[in-house]
């Protein structure tokens, strides 16, 4: 008995240490320079939490060798698979990767909460007898936590899978029959609440409880699809941040189901940070958080904008040779990275070009829009990979006023985040969205593979402004050629 108690104390201490490491890791993630260390601390926290959980199996009166082997084997297999995916998945697919992992987190919470339904049946939940006599109210608390874990976890899983499919180009629709309409989403939400209340408080026997749990799971999965379907590509950074928050909340509620303090702490951290990030993304895109929560984000792609290389009449094209000459005489240059930079894997080349310009005496900076790319912080990660000094990265509000004093702005695959329609066309789908006002620079060179629209699905008048030049090429190839020409000058 003494040995069992000792194991429990050690495991709880391990949970406390893991919680501290998670919080410290999150703090470190707030700065680029310390982000890698923050990730390491969080990883060690997860390793400690897994070890503590396995140790608790030995404190269980019903533990067996098979249960321990299964737990250890699952941890090893999951770690190996996660490491392999992290190494193999290219940076351009990282948004899909994040969405996929969010979904797995929600699915895990759903599985755990569903597996606890027999415990709910044992507690004999009803309005007249909430839990056992020694622990009044325990049944009610358990019912609420279990229902929330199933609903939020299932919504996170199915919603994240739709987000993954949209980001990967496997799903291009915004409706699937009635799925995606706010009316149906509201009905499904009310049905989820009703099923949770009925199953938790009114189910007369275990069979009814199992039925309520099963139907609740199905309804929640459909609700997740309906909430994510209407979200367009331009709004996907917001969706990813929100789904990340959902996965944390699902883990937190599962912690209440299992009475596990570590899950509650870790889930709360993820949920809170996800909500904060969602609000930042909404502000950056001029979106309403209430619309996001209701699945009401409008797909700007339905706005009827040009989606092909047509509709432009005054576009002036240029070449890498001409770009090199323009940059050679520039005293100040700002690079604006976008998803095209990620696709071309050109971050190292832009860093090489920037270094060359600095040696020639030019002031070089990078303008980072909060939602450039396909996930929050996408461009920061790419540029950090190329060892771009963090001090050269400027957020939108800190650099917008400097464009008018800049000789050359080189836009690398960005589109909607530097579209003047946001400030000049009140009827545009992106009207009011804060954008990088690159058109105020003396010369703007847009490096883009084609004149096709971005995720918002609308044309960009920047392409045919008097001070704009279009370099229609792959970003990496264009930069390589420009570097060669610049060295020859």
What's the gyration radius in Å? 26 Å
The general outline is elongated
Q: What series of H and E elements makes up the topology?
A: HHHHHHHHHHHHEHHEHEHEHEEH
Helical content (DSSP H or I, runs of 4+) = 55-70%
How is the main sheet built?
6 strands, parallel
> Treating each run of at least 4 consecutive H or I residues as one helix, how many helices?
18
Termini gap: 81 Å
Strand content is 5-15%
How is this structure best described in words?
The chain has 489 residues and is α/β, with parallel strands linked by helices. The protein has two domains: 89-298, no CATH class; 320-488, TPP-binding domain (Rossmann fold, 3-Layer(aba) Sandwich), CATH 3.40.50. The chain contains 18 helices and six strands. The chain has a six-stranded parallel sheet with strand order 3-2-1-4-5-6. The longest helix has 30 residues, at 138-167. It is elongated. The model is unreliable at 124-133 and 295-308 (pLDDT under 50).
Features:
489 residues; alpha/beta; Rossmann fold; 2 domains; six-stranded parallel beta sheet
Set out the fold topology.
Elements: H1 2-28, H2 32-59, H3 65-88, H4 94-115, H5 117-122, H6 138-167, H7 182-202, H8 206-228, H9 236-258, H10 261-285, H11 289-293, H12 320-328, E1 332-337, H13 339-344, H14 347-359, E2 363-368, H15 378-385, E3 393-395, H16 396-399, E4 408-412, H17 421-424, E5 443-448, E6 468-472, H18 475-488
Parallel strand pairs: 1-2, 1-4, 2-3, 4-5, 5-6
């Amino acid at each position: 008995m003494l040995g069992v108690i000792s194991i429990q104390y050690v495991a709880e201490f391990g949970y406390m240490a893991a919680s501290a490491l998670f919080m410290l890791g999150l703090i470190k993630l707030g700065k680029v320079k310390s982000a890698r260390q923050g990730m390491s601390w969080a990883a060690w926290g997860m390793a400690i939490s897994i070890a503590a959980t396995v140790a608790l199996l030995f404190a269980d009166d019903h533990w067996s060798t098979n249960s321990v082997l299964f737990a250890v084997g699952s941890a090893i297999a999951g770690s190996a698979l996660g490491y392999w995916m992290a190494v193999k998945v290219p940076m351009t697919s990282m948004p899909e990767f994040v969405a996929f992992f969010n979904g797995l987190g929600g699915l895990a919470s759903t599985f755990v909460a569903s597996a606890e339904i027999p415990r709910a049946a044992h507690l004999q939940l009803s309005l007249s007898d909430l839990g056992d006599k020694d622990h009044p109210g325990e049944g009610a608390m358990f019912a609420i936590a279990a229902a929330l874990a199933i609903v939020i976890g299932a919504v996170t899983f199915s919603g994240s899978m739709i987000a993954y499919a949209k980001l990967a180009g496997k799903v291009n629709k915004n409706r699937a029959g009635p799925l995606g309409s706010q009316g149906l989403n509201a009905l499904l939400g009310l049905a989820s609440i009703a099923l949770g209340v009925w199953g938790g408080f009114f189910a007369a026997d275990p069979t009814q409880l199992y039925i309520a749990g099963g139907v609740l799971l199905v309804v929640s999965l459909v609700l997740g699809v309906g909430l994510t379907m209407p979200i367009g590509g331009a709004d996907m950074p917001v969706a990813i941040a929100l789904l990340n928050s959902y996965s944390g909340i699902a883990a937190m509620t599962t912690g209440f189901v299992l009475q596990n303090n570590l899950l509650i702490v870790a889930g709360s951290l993820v949920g809170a940070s996800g909500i904060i990030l969602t609000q930042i993304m909404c502000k950056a895109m001029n979106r309403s958080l209430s619309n996001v929560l209701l699945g009401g984000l409008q797909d700007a792609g339905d706005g009827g904008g040009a989606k092909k290389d047509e509709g432009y009449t005054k576009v002036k094209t240029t070449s890498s040779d001409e770009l090199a000459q323009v940059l050679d005489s520039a005293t100040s240059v700002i690079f604006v990275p976008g998803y095209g930079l990620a696709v071309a894997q050109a971050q190292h080349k832009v860093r090489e070009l920037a270094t060359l310009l600095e040696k020639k005496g030019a002031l070089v900076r990078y303008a980072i829009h909060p939602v450039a790319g396909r996930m929050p912080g996408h461009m920061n990660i790419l540029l950090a990979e190329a060892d771009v000094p963090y001090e050269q990265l400027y957020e939108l509000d800190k650099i917008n006023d400097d464009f008018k004093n800049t000789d050359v702005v080189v836009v690398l695959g960005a589109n909607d985040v530097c579209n003047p329609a946001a400030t000049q066309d009140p009827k545009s789908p992106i009207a009011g969205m804060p954008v990088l006002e690159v058109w105020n620079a003396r010369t703007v060179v847009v490096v883009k593979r084609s004149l096709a629209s971005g995720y918002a699905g609308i044309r960009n008048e920047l392409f045919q402004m008097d001070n704009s030049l279009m370099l229609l090429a792959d970003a990496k190839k264009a930069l390589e050629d420009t570097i060669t020409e610049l060295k020859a000058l």
